[in-house]
Design a protein that fits this description.
403 residues, binds arginine, three-stranded antiparallel beta sheet, alpha/beta, five-stranded parallel beta sheet
Length: 403
């Protein structure tokens, strides 16, 4: 329904002195929403009716029947104000969307690339309800950009790099059971990871064992790589299954480890711009002028960091996908991380720095406290989906088929 048109029609049949077009021109949207959704100023009618505008508004108000799509009509200081019923408005919009595949579509995107980095899980960690907000936000943006004529590219920046995989390899080699992993997939890996932490509390030397394996992954030791790839395959299979279930749009899975081969090049580029300085043995980019702590590029042992791999990933994406926007969706606890490395890219002089966007969302907490895979305090997304299905079924059975 075109609400404005309906209001103009209604006024037109009650004001003989003005034409439909004249009323259409007069009807305006009030600056403040408390004054309604549309307003008809009665000042220019003063001359015709030889009455004060507030009296004209008042008389018109008395003459009009309030149709069902309006909550009320009020006369306020020479204006006739119309308040649209919210339910009717929502219904009309939803009808419109359902009956029109192209609702809201446009071509302003001109086919340009927009990267959406979202639901970027870590290997061996399940999707839990805390990720739901992330997945839904990223996926909605994907669809919106597509409708606007952009070419969205969904990327899962899989967390497949870090010391935790050394720990997991140790746990797997010590307590792992392939048969159970085959049955329970990623959940079994999560259990092993949790077991490692429980055991390491009792015997801190396990931390060293974990570190040894993580070093072996970096050195590309064949056994370490074989087990790490095995974990990764299980995680990707799991991710794809859930992404399918939720109809999430993804085009690529590019894990953090992929960028390791390019890290040296990134460091070289930062050095060439004279941005790299040594601080307590580490190589950093200073960000004093932005009141931010330095962005650490290389640890004192030469290892890369999360930020280093994000910088490398951004350069890779700029070179390979030529994006107008690259949007990262994560929990808001990562706001500083993104602010810092976006500044590094800016200082490096890349013009595409302006296309980098971080969307930080709030965290989901359970009554039992913060969600933590390590501590075992999670509700997995699969559990949540299954429970929702069961509840829906229960209600359908209670209320009959159409309930
Ligand atoms: N895997 C990360 C995490 O769980 C999120 C990655 C977000 N994407 C990125 N390019 N940093 O916190």
């Amino acid at each position: 329904m075109d609400f404005k048109e309906e209001i103009v029609k209604m006024l037109d049949s009650n004001i003989n002195e003005l034409s439909y077009e004249e009323i259409d021109k007069l009807l305006e949207v009030p600056k403040e929403s408390k004054l309604g959704d549309y307003a008809m100023p009665c000042f220019s009618l003063s001359k015709i009716f030889r009455k004060a505008p507030n009296i004209i508004a008042e008389e018109l108000k008395d003459k009009l029947d309030v149709p069902s799509f309006l909550d009320k009509i009020e006369s306020i200081s020479g204006y006739l104000n119309f308040f649209i019923n919210r339910k009717e408005f929502s219904k009309s919009i939803i009808d419109n969307i359902l009956n029109n595949d192209d609702y809201g579509a446009s071509n302003i995107g001109n086919g340009e690339n927009v990267i959406l980095d979202y639901a970027s899980l870590n290997v061996a960690k399940p999707f839990h309800i805390g990720h739901l907000k992330n997945a839904v936000t990223g996926n909605s943006l994907y669809r919106i950009y597509k409708k606007l004529g952009y070419n969205p590219i969904g990327i899962n920046h899989l967390g497949d790099f870090g010391t935790q995989f050394g720990k997991l390899i140790y746990a797997y080699k010590t307590w792992g059971d392939d048969e159970k992993i085959k049955q329970n997939g990623i959940y079994e890996l999560t259990d092993l990871y949790q077991k490692f932490h429980v055991e390491a509390e009792k015997d801190p030397s396990l931390e060293d064992k974990g570190r040894e394996w993580s070093l072996k992954i970096e050195e590309k030791d064949p056994e370490a790589i074989r087990i790490w790839t095995y974990f990764k395959d299980i995680s990707i299979e799991y991710f794809n299954r859930l992404a399918d279930k939720m109809d999430l749009k993804f085009d690529k899975i590019i894990g953090e480890a992929f960028y390791m081969d390019f890290v040296d090049d990134t460091v070289k580029k930062i050095k060439e711009k004279n941005l790299l300085v040594e601080s307590e043995g580490a190589q950093v980019v200073m960000l004093d002028e932005y009141n931010m702590p330095p962005c650490i590029i290389l640890r004192s042992d030469g290892g890369s960091l999360y930020a280093t791999r994000d910088i490398t990933g951004a350069i890779y994406r700029a070179e390979n996908f030529n994006f107008v926007k690259s949007i990262y969706i994560t929990g808001s606890e990562q706001i500083l991380h993104f602010k810092q490395w976006f500044k590094v890219i800016e200082k490096m002089g890349y013009p595409w720095a302006k296309g980098l966007v971080h969307l930080g969302h709030g965290m989901v907490k359970l009554e039992s406290g913060k969600l933590s895979t390590r501590g075992g305090n999670i509700i997995t997304l699969e559990e949540a989906i299954n429970e929702a299905k069961e509840k829906a079924l229960e209600i359908m059975i209670q209320n009959g088929r159409d309930g």
